[in-house]
Specification:
There is one protein chain. Helices cover 24% and strands 30% of the residues. The protein contains 6 helices and 20 strands.
Length: 344
């Protein structure tokens, strides 16, 4: 540490007993200077105080200047780093990080194979036939078509238009399913939407078509995606794509013909389907070796609760959800029995 004579004198200057008798009187004298200079009778004292303070500041400034140059010795900052050690540290820091526990969990969760789900929606009791819509009969262009209420359609015990889809996020895909294939067609035909309920993936092209000889509009009330209202003259077609997954089915309507309605199931993966005229659906290449949660839905009921799957072997909660863990190459058959009361 620097210990020049000037430095030692300066330390004595600021430390007791000198500091107590020199510095503090100097500070208090400065306060007295302000008070005295405001009194006309103290003119000479004011000038003496100013000269004293100027002298004190000059002495202090010179002492600090000598202290700054009072030590003419080289300062050592410690040993210099060796270039080889620095280079080794750089290589270590730039090397790829080892696998973490999160990465290990991802690898463990990877599918060990793929499976297929085939199922059928059946209704246990008799359900009335869909009733014709009287409003459609009042429209001259639509009166010649038989337009019925399609909120519940049961044919020979098969529930038509019921949906099943995976709720679990970030499910793996086979390479051939990485991108959507094929277009979905939503047609305005005979004063109704065909199909009444459809499944579409995010990024999949949906062709909204008008096969009727008169105008329609197709209003898509999506939530996660911007809503749309396409004006469709006769024989017109527009392309639409859902960019984001929809948590709930999306309502579709026509403002020109308000009885027309439909639904879109929009998901980020292909693991879903809608029952056809026989109540059947097929979901292919489902990841095996991991638990997946599925949702059951129907237009009139919403989430399908009270259903029985395979005689009760698969447990369904009150929100129409159940979980499956499939084996590689397994072809699982699901017999989904829906009580008529669940459709009210």
């Amino acid at each position: 540490m620097c210990q020049s004579p000037v430095h030692e004198r300066l330390q004595q200057f600021f430390n007791p007993p000198y500091g107590a008798t020199l510095i503090f009187p100097f500070r208090f004298h400065g306060l007295a200077l302000v008070a005295n200079c405001r009194r006309p009778s103290r003119g000479s004292e004011c000038m003496q105080a100013i000269n004293l303070n100027r002298s004190a500041f000059a002495i202090l400034f010179i002492a600090l200047a000598f202290t700054a140059v009072g030590c003419n010795r080289r300062v050592e900052y410690g040993p210099r780093a060796e270039a080889s050690i620095v280079e080794e540290i750089r290589r270590t820091l730039s090397a790829p990080a080892p696998a973490t526990e999160a990465a290990a969990e991802t690898a463990d969760a990877a599918p060990v194979g793929w499976a297929t789900i085939k199922g059928t929606f059946t209704v246990l009791e008799n359900v009335p036939e869909p009733a014709p819509l009287a409003q459609a009969k009042t429209d001259p262009a639509c009166a010649k078509h038989v337009v019925v209420d399609e909120s519940i359609v049961v044919q020979d015990g098969a529930l038509v238009g019921a949906a099943i889809f995976a709720r679990s996020p970030k499910l793996p895909l086979t390479p051939d399913l990485a991108e959507p294939t094929g277009d979905v067609v939503l047609d305005n035909k005979n004063c109704r939407f065909e199909p009444h309920v459809f499944f579409a993936r995010t990024g999949q092209k949906v062709l909204v078509r008008n096969s009727d000889p008169f105008g329609h509009n197709t209003k898509i009330d999506s939530v996660a995606n911007p809503s749309q209202n396409f004006s469709l003259p006769a024989a017109a077609t527009v392309e639409h794509t859902f960019g984001k997954e929809e948590l709930q089915p999306v309502k579709i309507g026509c403002s020109i013909h308000p009885w027309m309605g439909g639904w879109a199931i929009v998901r980020g993966n292909p693991y879903g389907g809608v029952s056809d005229e026989r109540g059947s659906f097929v979901i292919e290449k489902v990841p095996a070796g991991r638990e997946i949660e599925f949702q059951l839905w129907q237009e009139k009921a919403g989430p399908l609760d009270g259903v029985t799957i395979n005689g009760g072997e698969v447990k369904v909660d009150g929100k129409g959800r159940f979980k499956l863990k499939l084996e590689p190459d397994q072809e699982l058959a699901l017999d989904i029995s829906v009580p008529a009361d669940a459709l009210k």
